[in-house]
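2024-03-11 09:14:02 INFO worker-7 job=invfold-0412 stage=load source=structure_tokens
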């Protein structure tokens, strides 16, 4: 949230290679620090926290990458380029866990080189691999990446800072104020899109454990497979929107994506009269005193239940915990509901994601977009921070019915906002009638 606007501001006034190289080197150093967090004899957890913080800081270069793509493409090329970039990002999210899984063969002990305090094991190897890829990226940036800026019509801009001496016509076409209302609207929509997907990612493990009595290991494994398949679905969605956007435009696709997401969460609402298995006992105690207030009108008195644990049972307790009062009154979400929802959300989210910042870049026009892209990235980071907090609090205390109902309401409000601002969410050059939409 902090780094994105700073790197964006830097890229507005200096060659974009500079913030990209610096941010990646920060990421490389952070990964190495994480791998060496075992070396100090004291305060190891603080070194680990510092390392993760700097990894997040280095990731602020996303704003620079998006501003580079926006500045290096014309309006006709923009959607396709943004979709390709998003597809590569989705591929990274898929391959990252695959690489980590492959590195588990090293084992917990691995190999050690005492002379430099190096310990290469299944926990540090991914960090070293990330640092290696970072160095490779820096080499590619130095050797290949060149400054390339064009306006909305595809005319070459000769320098980073546009001046009247260089290209009078380009300067004339870039004059005009950016529609700040449209900018704020895009930031709100982007926040909502990432907020609801962060909730979806966070809630998948506890939801499947509560509804299907999966163990934690099963929930992590099965949901990991589902997320990998969603990643593959996302890549296909990115490729599809490149062709569809040429006929319909970004706004229609964005609205369609929001409606698909709404359908995905609406399907997750609990129905019927079948209830999830209840996790009656806390195996760590000799008894469990549960006091609950029944939400059914037929029960007006407070119920006090004492449950004895299963003796000599050392397995992991499964089912919906009795401490969550809604477990007794909320119908089960069937597996078919959950899988159908995964497919719909896995289709709607990538479509909304790429369309939102593609439309945003077109609204900003040919002016340097680094700071604006930084704010967009910061809003997305805020959404991914608040989403898990919302999921943990609302889901735990109120259950899936309230959680998914609130999300459906949020998506509907976002759709209404998009509809209300529909005519203002147009490209900079279109608004000033320099290009016909």
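2024-03-11 09:14:09 INFO worker-7 stage=emit residues=437
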């Amino acid at each position: 949230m902090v780094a994105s606007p700073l790197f964006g501001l830097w890229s507005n006034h200096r060659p974009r290679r500079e913030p990209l190289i610096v941010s990646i080197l920060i990421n490389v150093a952070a990964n190495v620090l994480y791998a060496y967090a075992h070396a100090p004899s004291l305060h190891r957890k603080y070194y680990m926290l510092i390392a993760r913080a700097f990894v997040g800081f280095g990731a602020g270069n996303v704003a620079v990458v998006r501003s580079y793509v926006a500045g290096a493409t014309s309006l006709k090329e923009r959607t396709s380029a943004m979709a390709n970039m998003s597809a590569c990002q989705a591929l990274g999210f898929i391959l990252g866990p695959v690489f980590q899984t492959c590195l588990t063969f090293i084992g917990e002990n691995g190999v050690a080189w005492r002379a430099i305090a190096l310990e290469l094991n299944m926990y540090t190897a991914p960090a070293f691999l990330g640092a290696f890829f970072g160095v490779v990226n820096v080499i590619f940036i130095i050797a290949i990446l060149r400054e390339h800026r064009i306006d909305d019509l595809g005319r070459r801009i000769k320098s980073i800072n546009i001046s009247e001496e260089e290209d009078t016509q380009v300067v004339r076409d870039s004059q005009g104020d950016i529609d700040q209302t449209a900018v704020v609207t895009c930031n709100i929509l982007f926040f909502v899109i990432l907020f609801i997907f962060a909730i979806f990612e966070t809630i998948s493990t506890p939801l499947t454990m509560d509804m299907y009595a999966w163990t934690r290991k099963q929930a992590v494994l099965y949901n990991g497979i589902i997320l990998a398949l969603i990643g593959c679905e996302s890549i296909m969605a990115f490729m599809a929107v490149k062709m569809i956007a040429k006929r319909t435009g970004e706004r229609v696709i964005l609205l369609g994506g929001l409606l698909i997401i709404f359908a995905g969460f609406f399907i997750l609402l609990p129905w019927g009269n079948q209830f999830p298995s209840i996790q009656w006992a806390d195996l760590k105690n000799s008894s469990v005193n549960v006091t609950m207030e029944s939400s059914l009108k037929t029960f007006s008195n407070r119920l006090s239940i004492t449950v004895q644990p299963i003796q000599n049972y050392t397995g992991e307790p499964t089912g919906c915990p009795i401490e969550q009062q809604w477990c007794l009154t909320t119908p089960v979400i069937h597996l078919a509901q959950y899988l159908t929802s995964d497919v719909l959300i896995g289709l709607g989210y990538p479509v909304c994601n790429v369309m939102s910042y593609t439309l945003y870049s077109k609204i900003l026009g040919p002016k340097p977009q680094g700071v604006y892209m930084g704010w967009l990235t910061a809003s997305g980071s805020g959404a991914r921070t608040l989403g898990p907090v919302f999921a943990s609090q609302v889901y735990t205390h109120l259950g899936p019915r309230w959680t998914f109902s609130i999300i459906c309401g949020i998506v509907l409000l976002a759709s209404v906002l998009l509809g209300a601002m529909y005519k203002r969410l147009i490209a900079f050059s279109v608004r000033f009638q320099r290009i016909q939409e």
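2024-03-11 09:14:09 INFO worker-7 stage=report msg="The two ends are 34 Å apart (CA to CA)."
2024-03-11 09:14:10 INFO worker-7 job finished
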